[in-house]
Every structure is written in C-alpha cells, then in structure tokens.
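Q: I'm building a small set of examples for a reading group on sequence design. Run inverse folding on the following structure and report the sequence directly after it, with nothing in between.
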C-alpha cells in the first residue's frame, strides 16, 4: 500500500514525530487532499499538550491547510480531483443540534469537528476532510499564502466584518503578531481609521506600513487614554493573548463601543461593570467561520492585496517550526510545506 509522511503527536505532551503511514482512503461524504502547505497555529498546542477534551492519540495536528483534491469519496457532489482547496478550524459539524439547525455551524453544540483535533490534520502529505469543510482557493493565492488565511485570516476578517464598525470609524487592533498583522491589514482595507496597539516602538513602522494610521506603544502611553484622544474606538479587536492588555484598553472604547476577543487565554478580564454601564460598552468573543467564510476571506485578500507574512519550513522540520511559533519570535505566521 502506498505510503505518506505525517507528523504526529503520539500522546499528550508528547513530541512531534515524523512517521510513515498508509495513504488514507476517503469515505462517504469526504475527500482526500494532497497537502501542499499547512500553517502552524498557537491552537495546535491544544493537541500537542493534550488540553482539548476527548483527544485521541496518535493525532496529526494542523488546521490551516491548503492543497489539491486527490480523491473523492461516495456522495460528494460538486467536488472533483484537481480542485485547489483549503480547510480551516471549522472542519465539519453534526448537522442536527440547535445551532446547526439554525445554520450556525461554527457553534455546533456537539463538538464541531476540528482538523488536527477531531481527526488528523494537515501536518502530512495527505489528509481526509469532510466535503462541507472545503473552501476553494483562488488562482491568485499560493498554498503558502492561502494556508494562514484558513484560521488567522478568517478569524480576523470575519470578526471585523461582523463587528458593526463602519468605514471611517476608529478601529483598534490590540497586538501586531500572527493574528494582529492580518487584522491591521483587513481593518485598513475595510476603510476603518485603523489603530495598532502593541508593546514597544519596534512594531510601529511595520504597523504603519501594513495600513494603520496610528500606532500606540503601551510601554510609553496609556492605550485607553490615547484611544480617547482619537475620539474613542468603535471596536477593539483583541488579538494578543494577554488578559491584562485587554483589560487595559477597554477604557478606550467610545460610547457603544465593543471589545472583540480573539486571543485565547484562560485568565479572566478585569473590567469594572461601571465602565461598561456608563458608556454602553460590550465585550464579545468571535470564533472563526465556515468554509464559505474562508472563501470570502481569500477573495477579499486577493481583491485588496492582504497577505500573511510567513516563515516557511519543510514538513520534516515540523518540530523546529512548532517551537519557532511557540517562541513568539516568528514574523508572523509559520507554514509547513510538503514539496507537492
């Protein structure tokens, strides 16, 4: 039987190991993807460290997948070999819970399927994915460009376009990292008066280059006060996984403003209720989106020139690439390639 390479986590907190496996066959309702690129996301640590409940090992991580359909299983209308497709965080859903019956598949109440967690993901030469998880990749995007848009891209793009902000509104992006550098670009291209917020002066020039009109260095300025001088933010997109940093900017929201939390962190926010009440402020979270949302994200990126800044590693260096991402030193996404 034909073989492939895969990088798996053998057990919770185990090492990323390169192994040889049989190339899987797609079952009913699914396709096999020849993986060309797969982004490494901080959320892959949920698999690596055994944090996500119900994980079964060994497991191949990866949910920022770009590749080509290689084989189609029974009962998959509309898809065929040779199509370029991506798969993101939302890799399937149950179809029968209340959320799914309302068409809100991302909040599936029966553990929506996640590549690299519910089933083997993209750290491999091939993977199997449900047809409902597939997003068509535009010809203008390379696999390395498309991969990060499947998670970091869709999450920031989708949150911003559903935020309620209008062109000209002050919209701040907290954090200029893996998510934030895309959030700044999307916010600028959507016509918002974009403010980037980060620690230190070193990211200021890059933030302005990415489209921000203002940069706030939290080491030298009170970010809330600086935002109020600009009239107060309609939306603050919190991409930095730091509860203290999020709490520190809430006071910079204008009347009716909203803090949208994307940075995954377990520590609680420290926000006095009176702050929310007196200015009708709100705090919300935002998950990624469906496969069609991924297509929208890629289409907008092609239209406006939004691109991820990525460091590229071959599949066999996945362990090194993962550590590079976890170190926080990568500028700004890390992407594995298979050479396909």
């Amino acid at each position: 039987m034909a073989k492939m390479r895969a990088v798996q986590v053998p057990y919770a907190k185990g090492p990323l190991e390169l192994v040889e496996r049989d190339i899987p066959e797609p079952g009913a309702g699914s396709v096999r993807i020849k993986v060309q690129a797969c982004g490494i996301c901080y959320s892959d640590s949920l698999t690596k460290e055994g944090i996500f409940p119900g994980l079964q090992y060994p497991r191949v991580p990866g949910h920022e997948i770009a590749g080509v359909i290689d084989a189609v299983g029974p009962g998959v209308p509309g898809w065929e070999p040779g199509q370029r497709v991506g798969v993101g965080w939302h890799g399937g859903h149950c179809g029968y819970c209340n959320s799914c019956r309302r068409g809100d598949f991302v909040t599936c109440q029966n553990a929506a399927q996640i590549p690299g967690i519910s089933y083997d993901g993209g750290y491999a030469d091939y993977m199997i994915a449900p047809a409902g998880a597939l997003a068509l990749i535009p010809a203008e995007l390379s696999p390395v460009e498309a991969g990060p848009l499947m998670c970091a891209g869709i999450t920031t793009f989708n949150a911003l376009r559903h935020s309620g902000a209008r062109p000209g509104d002050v919209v701040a992006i907290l954090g200029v990292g893996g998510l934030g550098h895309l959030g700044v670009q999307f916010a600028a291209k959507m016509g918002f008066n974009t403010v980037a917020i980060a620690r230190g002066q070193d990211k200021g020039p890059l933030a302005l280059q990415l489209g921000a009109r203002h940069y706030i260095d939290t080491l030298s300025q009170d970010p809330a006060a600086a935002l109020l001088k600009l009239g107060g933010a309609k939306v603050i997109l919190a991409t930095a996984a730091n509860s203290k940093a999020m709490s520190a900017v809430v006071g910079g929201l204008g009347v009716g403003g909203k803090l949208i939390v994307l940075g995954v962190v377990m520590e609680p926010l420290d926000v006095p209720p009176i702050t929310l009440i007196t200015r009708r402020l709100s705090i919300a979270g935002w998950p990624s989106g469906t496969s069609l949302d991924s297509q929208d994200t890629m289409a907008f990126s092609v239209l406006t020139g939004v691109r991820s800044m990525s460091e590229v590693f071959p599949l066999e260096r996945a362990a090194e690439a993962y550590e590079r991402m976890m170190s926080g030193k990568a500028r700004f996404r890390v992407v594995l390639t298979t050479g396909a």
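Residues 163-285 form a domain with the Rossmann fold fold (CATH 3.40.50.720).
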